[in-house]
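=== RUN LOG ===
request id: a7f3
mode: sequence -> structure
chains: 1
length: 488
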Amino acid sequence: MHWVPSPMKGGSITLLQINDTHGYLKPHPELVWHGGGATFPVLGGYARIAGLFRDIRAERGGAAIALDNGDTFHGTYPAVQSRGTALVPLLNALALDGMTAHWEFAYGPAHFRTLAARLSYPVLAINCYEKAVGKLAFQPSRVIERGGLRVGIIGVAAAIVDKGMPPAYSEGLRFTLGRDELPGHIARLRGEESVDLIVVLSHLGFPQDVRLASEVTGINVLLSGHTHNRLEKPMLVNGALVIQSGCHGSFASRLDLDVKDGRIIRTAHRLIPVDASIAPEAAMTAMVDAVLAPHREMLGAVVGHTQIDLHRNTILEAPMDNLLLDAIAEAAETTIAFSNGWRYGAPVPQGPITRNDLWNMIPTNPPVSKVEMTGGELWTMMEDNLERSFSANPYEQMGGYVKRCRGINIYAKIENPPGQRIERFFADGEALDRDTTYTVAYVTMQAVPQHFGRNRRDLDLSAIGALERYLARHVDVSPALRGTVTAV
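=== RESULT ===
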């Protein structure tokens, strides 16, 4: 697609978006639904993204702005092992114009500030405050002059960092939705900065961003992140064009705009698969290879085989997480196990499983843990989790997918009000007894929050260690769906 700006008094700009790349530096299988099931084309890779940006910038004579919604510095072994530092030169080479953040806080706010200071573009967030002094921790916005336009870009970081994630992620920080602050920043940019276009760069999530756009006037474009939606066309909400571009760098979005007198008068959008049709940029190819080289042999080792496709792209239960749950349950000698409902993690098609696949599944590599919980606590924990996933108020949707479960079966009315969704709950095939104490295995605080249970203890075994041990004992695993959570 070649965009020919309309002859007019005003300007023309191309917005480029990547979101939730999660440290995926090279091409990888990605799940794409087609017809009756899943396909796994090889997509993504920073060298291809760099090539795509290069080509579009050349076509547009530089009249392009490239933005990143965050979840960038975390999610693969090279990213986590280097605490994000290995990605800084690559991201600078992409010549991005701004980003906001979420999992970047996993290394602690102080380290993220160090990473941000090394970037050639700003981290933007109107909703992240330093508790001690009440001031913003990051720059709220920036103005870019390009394509004959002044474009105001406002960042909104993930609001859940201090609400559903480990406390160390938000030490010294406080996060808001950004809804109350946003109108003032729009007015400032329109008035004091005389911008022609307002772009909001948000990591709240698609349902939350649609609600935000409906409540705040004056947004021209809202680039959304967090929920990994692939939007084939923008959604128009209260005058704002809302787009999101999948995850893992497998897709990027191009949004072409003609603007006159502060109004968008013509638009075109394309969700672009980052596939082999894009000529990779040579310099980025070399940079990626340099980052991966020290780890290639270790990560490339085959550690098991799967008879079915492993993925976590279904909201109630997924085969990839069933494999993880089987491994930690065996390690902890329990039948019941829980893990978080993460969205990130590239699929593993039927065949060999490499150590790299395991690190993609659970890059934090936490210890396998055990805790004792009453049946009543299990019921309450799962009701809470269903509310975090399916709340009628998008701002209360704070989880990823539904918590992953093993050894239990829940039959739930998803449309019911909070606390009333579960109709039947079984543990080990028997009706759950609210007064009975059950010993369960889990990985990460998100799987079993701290206010549930007693006698917590960590095993001397990590999640990836448990997976490797399990795969060594079980040939050709087949962790198919089991109906642990069923919508009825």
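=== NOTES ===
The chain has two domains: 11-292, 301-487.
The domain at 11-292 is CATH 3.60.21.10 (Purple Acid Phosphatase; chain A, domain 2).
=== END ===
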